[in-house]
Write a structure and sequence with these properties.
The complex is a heterodimer.
Chain A: H1 2-11, H2 13-51, E1 55-59, E2 75-76, H3 79-84, E3 89-95, E4 97-98, E5 102-104, E6 119-123, E7 132-137, E8 145-149, H4 150-156, E9 163-168, E10 171-183, E11 191-195, H5 197-205, E12 210-211, E13 213-218, H6 224-235, E14 242-246, H7 247-294, H8 296-304, H9 309-348, H10 363-388, H11 399-405, H12 409-431, H13 435-468, H14 472-489, H15 491-529, E15 534-537, H16 546-553, E16 558-572, E17 578-586, H17 590-593, E18 598-600, H18 603-607, E19 611-615, H19 616-621, E20 629-634, E21 639-648, E22 663-665, H20 666-672, E23 680-685, H21 691-702, E24 709-711, H22 713-756, H23 758-766, H24 771-809, H25 820-847, H26 850-855
Parallel strand pairs in A: 6-11, 8-10, 17-22, 19-21
Antiparallel strand pairs in A: 1-13, 1-14, 2-12, 3-13, 4-6, 5-9, 7-10, 8-11, 9-10, 15-23, 15-24, 16-17, 16-20, 16-23, 18-21, 20-21
Chain B: H1 4-8, E1 18-29, E2 36-47, E3 51-55, H2 62-69, E4 77-82, E5 85-86, H3 92-102, E6 103-106, H4 118-122, H5 124-129, H6 135-144, H7 160-173, E7 178-182, H8 190-205, E8 211-214, H9 218-221, E9 226-231, E10 234-240, H10 244-252, H11 264-271
The chains are: A alpha+beta, B alpha/beta.
Pfam families (chain B): ABC_tran
Domain ABC transporter (chain B): 20-257
Organism (chain B): Streptomyces regalis
């Protein structure tokens, strides 16, 4: 039996190859993402572990920031001297590390990374643990000399002797590049600028006695943990205001900070793997179903010769496992390639990881084989059962008729029950008023409706394709008629083939509706709330130095400037909840640049000293009333009691990480969280100045500051669009992958149909069907199958998208937008997919020898 | 469809009387020492308006002759004309159009497209050509074959005899110059077979068509005007106004005259090595 299985596997290797591709793609994405993230975290573990001091003392960050405030927490540099005297300490150094610096060249362009990674200003304290070494030039001396890392000098063409401008929180100043340092370890992607320590303190921190951390080296024989304990003892009662970390802890914390970014890559990759698996399952199910339909006689013969059901089933499953094994192995290799590609890509983005240091943990191959074998096993199980059900009589009967003839009643029943449950869940999600329950209902509804559509797909083949291909006979004559009817011939097969395309397009349809709705909602909100002529801010929402705001104020034609900053707070609410969130601080003239609707109170009451405002729904949920005094904890540890001065009634009060829509006066913010930088500045023109002139003036003013841009309302919308577009690009990439696999499925089905209809094709050719017409017939069948999948998928996706929008509406995204352009493009695209998929099968059919085809058995 | 080249060729085909003609028609398979001659310099004229049967034992080349005359297969040497058109040397595309417009086909089995109903099958060659069928002629053909009440049926809803009648109607529908029938009764019971043969006879006598039928059944050959006997790739004999007995008698010569009880079943088992497959080409 095994021999028969192996023979059969090899005999069908062409067809199995297509299924294997689906397995390979899924496994490659899974393995690639695992290898990539293992390699990256190992690399950074090693980097941070080798560069961290034995013990690092930093100011305690009491609240994790989700939105950067621009605040740099400092500690007294004198602490280093104090700690140097502790027993067991070999040396203690005051360190200065300032992120969010901007360094501009003579063309006023930033020399920092273009990837959003920071430019870090650091005091030049070379030790054996420095991640860099001076490779040319000399160490910086005085307040106008810097070193720059070689990766930056290479990519931005900076040379020793170049004059740069450093734009820091405490103002900008000119410097000269006197040396270049080279990373001895992996460069995580940031640009590094080194100053002499005194300059770093005065120019970057604005305080010659401040530092951002103390590095403590242990004397011989003192362990890091022991050293940490001694340092903590030495700090005594002050220890609570500092964060003490051993080298190991410091490395962990650093890796964690990078982790967010790496996690995104990992999840994107796993998303791809998921789509590949999902679509691949359909392809494999279909392939095996077809192989079995094709081999019904052969299987019947095996049964007639005495093979029992179990043996037949096992034979098919063994074949599937062989496929899974081959697919997983090749997929694993492809995954390594993919990881190398990703690492190279990271290299282009400035993160230089060596592909030779690739880490392949035992988890990777195990996961790869589990995924590969699991997918094929699950997908082949049903076909294998069906194969086992083949009666010995089938050896004599006509196989195809039996397969087509099986009623679809069970599918109809199961499909409608699951579909009804899914529809109920979606309706439930649409009417639900709580985000959390609505989201889970949405997930359930999406899953159930997807399953229902897959099950009921073959039932929809007849009605939908009748309509889709309705014009074919009129347009393409008998060729069109035959292709339409060929697509209807085996609804099960057509349904399963289209399902692969359907799944991908449903996801895309849903996500494009959701993102179009988000874009539209943001647009409407911006129109409604933004009243300023111009907004000056950073495209990554990174805060910028005060100096820029001052320059804006002094610009000719500027009437009013309103500053805003963000800070992280934790607020204790009357119902006992402690909510950590991002809050905003505005200058009192807020009403001049924004239109805020208040349920109670007004901007004056909200922005007064010691007051705050929040969203009325949030307030209601937590039992907050106007006049309540709420204990608020600020970054850096200061606490205050702020009185609720106003409640807002905004459609979208809650943005990213900003729960409750809390804001207060800028004065209040600066009092409790000093040292923050402006996140955005709203500018109105002085009376008599037209907007174009003001814009020109502002652009001139901001020319030396590459980190900020002037935007009017239209530009601001564009910025938001661009950010949402990133999500869309991801969707399109997923679409691409889903389509590739779906195309394989269509090719597979067509190829088999062509083989099955060999005699028919021979007859058609004999009575005068030209090759071109034959190709067109197969192409049209392919197109109608692909468009059927697209229509089903998009219809499902639209429903999902509308329901998703209903959930988003609870978060204030009230607008519903359906991207008809995208939808039409996808339908047209699917027709193209059909044409592409038909290329090979059509060629094969048209190359058939007419005589051999007629004689084909 | 006649090409300029064909018109100026030294065509021995006269304008009237001859529907198809072959001169020195040779078809070889394989090469070198393993060469098999399926047709060995055959000269043949198919008379217009006549019913010609081609007989011969398995491997005698009868199907190959039909395929070469119909432009389904290319020849190794020699020339073939359909009417005034020399078809040897035509390109694949021209051959396809020739088959579509000027030749009708019937096969032993699998004659119809399962997805099309009877009416659609009948008009298929014209539909493919994008031509309008001649409605009067079509009605005549459909009525002659008694298919009027079967036009909306799919092949799977028709009996074997009915299917072959539809195939016959299709072959006649475009009023081709020549109809080739390859074992048209091979898959039918004797009653249905007789019916189909009767229709072919009628097509010749009443509709003025030209039919060439390949068969191994002396009873079927007896319906023709002329039987051509093929043996080892050559035309070895011909018989006008044949009867089943005479044809059977002639066929016996191929087996060396072993006395045997006459009967179709015996003949079948003797000459028909299996379905019309490679060995017959």
């Amino acid at each position: 039996m095994l021999k028969a299985t192996l023979r059969s596997f090899l005999a069908h290797k062409g067809r199995l190859l297509l299924s294997a591709l689906a397995v390979i793609l899924s496994v490659a994405f899974v393995a690639g993402s695992l290898i990539f993230s293992d390699t990256v975290s190992r690399t950074f573990d090693r980097l941070f572990a080798s560069t961290a001091a034995d013990v690092t003392v930093t100011p305690k960050e009491t609240l994790d920031e989700t939105v950067p405030s621009g605040q740099t927490l400092t500690l007294p540099a004198s602490l280093a001297d104090r700690l140097a005297r502790v027993q067991g300490v070999a040396a203690a150094r005051a360190e200065v590390d300032v992120e969010g610096l901007t360094v501009a060249d003579e063309d006023r362009k930033s020399v920092g990374p273009t990837t959003g990674a920071p430019t870090i200003g650091t005091a030049w304290n070379p030790t054996e643990r420095s991640p860099v070494e001076l490779t040319s030039g000399r160490a910086p001396e005085g307040d106008a000399q810097v070193l720059i890392d070689a990766d930056t000098t290479d990519s931005k063409d900076v040379r020793i002797g170049d004059r740069l401008t450093v734009i820091g929180q405490e103002g900008s100043f000119p410097v000269e590049v006197v040396g270049i340092v080279t990373f001895t370890t992996t460069n995580p992607g940031a640009a590094l600028v080194f100053f002499d320590p005194a300059t770093a303190q005065t120019k970057l921190l604005g305080d010659p006695k401040a530092a951002t951390g103390i590095s403590v080296d242990a004397a011989e024989g003192v362990s890091d943990t022991e050293l940490k304990r001694r340092v903590a003892d030495a700090l005594g009662s002050d220890a609570g205001t500092y964060e003490l970390r051993t080298a190991e802890e410091q490395a962990e914390s650093d890796v964690e900070q990078l982790g967010g970014f790496l996690d995104i890559i990992k999840y994107v990759m796993l998303g791809f793997a998921g789509v590949a698996v999902l679509v691949g399952v359909f392809l494999i199910v279909n392939t095996f179903s077809m192989l079995i339909a094709q081999r019904t006689r052969e299987l019947g013969l095996l049964r007639a010769l005495g093979a029992d059901r179990r043996q037949v089933r096992r034979s098919v499953l063994t074949e599937a496992m062989l496929l899974g094994l081959v697919g997983s192995t090749v997929g694993l290799a492809a995954g390594i390639g993919l990881a190398v590609g990703l690492i190279e890509l990271m290299g282009l983005m400035g993160m230089n990881i060596k592909a030779t240091e690739m880490v392949i943990g035992w988890v990777t191959p195990v996961t790869a084989y589990v995924v590969g074998l699991g997918v094929t096993f699950v997908a082949a199980y049903l076909p294998a059962r069906r194969a086992a059900g083949v009666s010995p009589m089938a050896a004599l009967a006509d196989a195809e008729i039996a397969e087509i003839g099986r009623p679809l009643r069970l599918r109809a029943v199961v499909g409608s029950v699951v579909g009804a449950a899914g529809a109920a869940a979606l309706v439930g999600c649409a009417v639900s008023s709580r985000t959390s329950s609505a989201a889970s209902l949405l997930g359930l509804g999406v899953l159930l409706t997807l399953v229902a559509t897959v099950i009921a797909g073959p039932l929809l083949v007849r009605p939908v394709i009748r309509v889709l291909g309705g014009a074919f006979p009129a347009l393409f004559g008998s060729v069109g008629r035959m292709s339409q009817r060929n697509a209807l011939r085996n609804p099960r097969r057509t349904g399963a083939t289209a399902a692969a395309l359907m799944v991908g397009l449903a996801l895309v349809g849903g996500m494009s509706v959701a993102s179009a709705s988000m874009t539209q909602s943001f647009d409407e909100q911006i129109d409604k709330t933004l009243g300023a002529d111009f907004v000056v801010q950073n495209s990554n929402f990174v805060p910028f130095p005060r100096e820029i705001t001052d320059k804006i104020r002094d610009t000719e034609g500027v009437g009013l400037v309103v500053r805003s900053q963000f800070t992280t707070i934790a607020v204790r609410l009357p119902d006992g909840d402690r909510v950590k969130t991002t809050a905003a601080g505005y200058e009192p003239e807020l009403d001049e640049v924004a239109n805020i609707t208040y349920a109670q109170g007004d901007s004056a009451a909200a922005l007064a000293d010691g007051r705050l405002a929040m969203d009325k729904d949030f307030a209601e949920d937590h039992g907050v009333r106007v006049g309540n005094a709420l204990p608020v904890e600020f970054q850096g540890g200061r606490r205050a009691e702020l009185t609720v001065g106003a409640l807002t009634d905004q459609e979208s009060a809650e943005g990213f990480g900003a729960q409750g829509g809390i804001y207060f006066g800028l004065g209040t913010l600066q009092k409790y969280a000093p040292g923050g930088q402006d996140a955005s500045v709203y500018v109105n023109a002085a009376s008599g100045t037209n907007a174009d002139d003001l814009r020109a003036n502002l652009e001139e003013t901001l020319d030396p500051y590459p980190q900020v841009q002037v935007r009017d309302i239209a530009d601001y919308k564009q910025l938001v669009h661009d950010q949402i577009a990133v999500l869309l690009y991801l969707v399109y990439a997923l679409l691409g992958l889903a389509i590739i696999i779906a195309v394989l499925g269509v090719v597979n089905t067509l190829a088999l149909s062509v083989v099955e209809r060999t005699r028919e094709i021979g007859l058609l050719r004999a009575i005068g069907l030209a090759r071109r017409q034959l190709r067109r017939m197969i192409r049209l069948e392919s197109v109608v199958i692909a468009v059927f999948g697209a229509v089903l998928g998009l219809a499902l996706g639209l429903v999902w998208g509308v329901c998703t929008q209903q959930v988003l509406a609870l978060q204030g995204m009230t607008a519903l937008a359906i991207p008809w352009g995208t939808i039409v493009a996808v339908v047209i695209g699917s027709a193209v997919v059909g044409i592409v998929a038909a290329l090979l099968p059509a060629l094969r059919a048209s190359r058939m020898n007419v005589l051999a085809a007629i004689a084909h058995e | 469809m006649s090409t300029a080249a064909a018109e100026h060729a030294p065509s021995p085909a006269s304008a009237d009387g001859i529907a198809a003609r072959a001169r020195g028609l040779t078809k070889a398979y394989g090469s070198g020492e393993t060469t098999v001659l399926a047709l060995d310099a055959v000269d043949v004229d198919i008379a217009r308006g006549r019913f010609t049967a081609v007989m011969g034992p398995s491997g005698s080349g009868k199907s190959t002759l039909m395929h070469c005359l119909a432009g389904l297969d290319n020849v190794s040497a020699g020339q073939v004309w359909l009417g005034d058109t020399e078809i040897t040397g035509l390109k694949e595309r021209e051959l396809t159009r020739l088959r579509r417009d000027r030749i009708g086909f019937m096969f032993q089995s699998f004659n119809l497209i399962p997805t099309l109903n009877a009416a659609e099958n009948i008009t298929l060659p014209m539909d493919i050509a994008g031509k309008k069928p001649d409605e009067k002629w079509l009605d005549q053909v459909i009525d002659t074959l008694g298919l009027r009440d079967r036009l909306k049926h799919r092949p799977s809803q028709l009996s074997g005899g009915q299917q072959q009648r539809v195939a016959c109607a299709r072959a006649l529908a475009s009023r081709p110059e020549l109809i080739f029938a390859d074992e048209p009764t091979g898959n039918l019971d004797s009653r249905a077979g007789l019916e189909v043969l009767g229709f072919l006879r009628e097509a010749v006598d009443q509709l003025g068509q030209t039919v060439v039928m390949v068969t191994h059944d002396p009873g079927a050959a007896a319906h023709s005007d002329l039987v051509l006997f093929l043996g080892d790739g050559r035309i070895v004999d011909e018989m006008a106004r044949p009867t089943a007995e005479a044809v059977l008698e002639r066929m016996r010569l191929f087996t060396g005259g072993t006395p045997q009880t006459p009967g179709f079943d015996v003949i079948r088992s003797q000459f028909d090595g299996g379905p019309a497959t490679l060995e017959e080409r």
